[in-house]
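In this supplementary section we document a worked example of the pipeline. Step one takes a protein sequence of length 436 as its only input; no multiple sequence alignment statistics are reported here. Step two produces a three-dimensional model, which step three serialises into structure tokens for compact storage. The input and output of this example are shown verbatim.
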Amino acid sequence: MFFDRPDTGEGAVLVHIDFPEGDDKEDPAEFEELVRSAGGAPLALITGTRSAPDAKTFIGRGKVEEVSDAIEFCEAELVIFNHQLSPSQERNLEHALKCRVLDRTGLILDIFAQRARTHEGKLQVELAQLQHQSTRLIRGWTHLERQKGGIGLRGPGETQLETDRRLLRDRIKLIHKRLAKVQTQREQGRRARKRSSTPSVSLVGYTNAGKSTLFNALTEAKVYAADQLFATLDPTLRRIPIQGLGEVVLVDTVGFIRHLPHKLVEAFKATLQETQEADLLLHVIDSADEDRQLNMEQVEIVLDEIEALDRPTLQVFNKIDLLPGQKPRIDRDDQGLPWRVWASAKDSQGLELIRQAIGELLSQTLFEQTIELTPQESQLRALLYDHGAVLHEEFTENGHMMLDVRIEQDDFQQMLAKVGIPLERFIPQEKEFWQL
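The serialised model returned by step three reads:
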């Protein structure tokens, strides 16, 4: 029911109100781009300033009249707010404007519904939509919303609403079960990659920063990429060769945006877990965007919400083709490690630098060397084999085992603790090895 869409765009009146929120304000230009991404046609933009939202209509009586005049003049079919409205505010506005009203959360959910392609993506979007819609059910039953007193006047309104809510709860419960199954399958895939010691790199960034274009350039894949918000919704995984490391799994993920609805973050938990458990995050940034610093902060807010802010991160300042005179380069920190790469995915500038930086950073998290084990240490050997960390093995004349090992440092450290072997057995104390 949520994926049947009209063939033509809908004419919409847009409403944007400025509040004294400091840096937390919404962007009107981004708002218009969101509407166009949803297939809408912005006909008018109503702006204003308030010290606080009106409890009843969010914008106050005067602005309601101004919006009503704009609807009549433009013959609009829809009013979209660049803010989150309460169910009662939506209901009051629809009653006053005699027109369908949509808030920012509903708009983003609608875009996600259009972009969903896989079964998992559609389930995630439907879950978010149902959770959002559950508080707005009464709007569709205004003629039955109250039971009247007296013989012959007792209506079935509350019964109908209760039925709808029960059906909604049942559907949400079913989707949760299906998504739990998807999450289990994803976890199995991640465990298999971990056993084969294949590092994963997840692309993150503000929507329309160029993540999918960069993904295609690095992997030679054909993931859909377009100059629009939320062009990518379903995650895509590809393997790319990195010199000195072998193959690395690159993950393209959904873009973030200011005030990304919490319901979406919850619904996409299985997808975003790829980011949470990645060995390295590539934070793709539109270097030509005037608001790039604010966009970077918004991405970090979402990463913090999904508990991925502590993951090792490499910034990729993309779209340098839009910056006159800017050349591809790697910026390094005080330890000489890469922390930012300037590149252009569109023109394939700086791609080798990105691969080089990925290799340097991931090698910091790997324990890769030949170790010698005694027969009494065979338990560690078994654990290394179970983890898929042994690349080659030979036996010496005295019965010792020489193992070529490649494994994540934290995994190796946990194994050593489990079998009671001190770290210094393989890593001298004076060597600063553990970089995590």
